[in-house]
Amino acid sequence: MDNYQCRKCGMQLQSDDTPRSASCQEGNSHAWEKLGEVGDINFQCRKCGMRLQSDGTPRSASCQEGNSHAWEKLGEVGDINFQCRKCGMQLQSDDTPKSASCQKGNSHSWQKF
Ligand SMILES: [Zn+2]
Ligand SMILES: [Zn+2]
Ligand SMILES: [Zn+2]
Fold first, then answer.
1. Average pLDDT, stretch 11-35?
2. Per-position b or e across 26-59, b if 16+ CB within 10 A of its CB
3. Which ligand gives the minimal distance to the CA of 10?
4. Which candidate in 7, 40, 72, 87 could, as Cys together with 31 as Cys, close a disulfide (CB 3.0–4.6 Å)?
5. Ligand index nearest the alpha carbon of residue 87
6. Cα–ligand 3 centroid distance for 21 (angstroms)
7. pLDDT 10s digits, 84-107
8. How far is it, in rounded angstroms, from Cα 1 to Cα 22?
9. What gap in Å lies between CA 77 and CA 54, rounded to an integer?
10. How far, in Å, CA of 52 to CA of 43, rounded?
11. What is the residue-wise DSSP string for 38-86?
12. Listed residue (65, 104, 110, 69) closest to 91, CA to CA
């Protein structure tokens, strides 16, 4: 299973094979980029805030905020629910995720819920 993202609209999905290029809200069809294997580590892009679960640092690919994604590792996927008090992002982690960069400024402020 691999993570894919459309370079044009930013849509994200997991698939075994290159997804079909159905119609993209940005015009014509989706332009899929492969981001790498789905795995047990949470990553987030510091720039656009996109989040995914990968087995290693995802490929940089194209970031909606320009150039390529800037991935930060947030920690192992687990069964504890965390939410950032500032940006509202939710995450399942095995321990308090790394603070990393928050879209609302400085770093995430995690709380269990
Ligand atoms: Zn698209
Ligand atoms: Zn990004
Ligand atoms: Zn946050």
1. 94
2. eeeebebbebbebbebbbbbbbbebebbbeeebe
3. 1
4. 7
5. 3
6. 32
7. 999 999 999 999 999 999 999 999
8. 19
9. 10
10. 5
11. EEEEEEEETTT--EEEESSPPP--B-TTSSB--EEEEEE--SEEEEETT
12. 110
- To 5 degrees, how large is the angle CA 25–CA 30–CA 31? 135
d(CA 109, CA 6): 29
Query: How many Cα atoms occupy the beta-carbon half-sphere of 10 within 13 Å?
Result: 12
CA quadruple 61, 62, 67, 68: dihedral, nearest 10: -30
Distance in Å, CA 32 to ligand 1 centroid: 8
Place of tokens 């510091």: 46
Instruction: Write out pLDDT tens, residues 37-82.
Output: 999 999 999 999 999 999 999 999 999 999 999 999 999 999 999 9
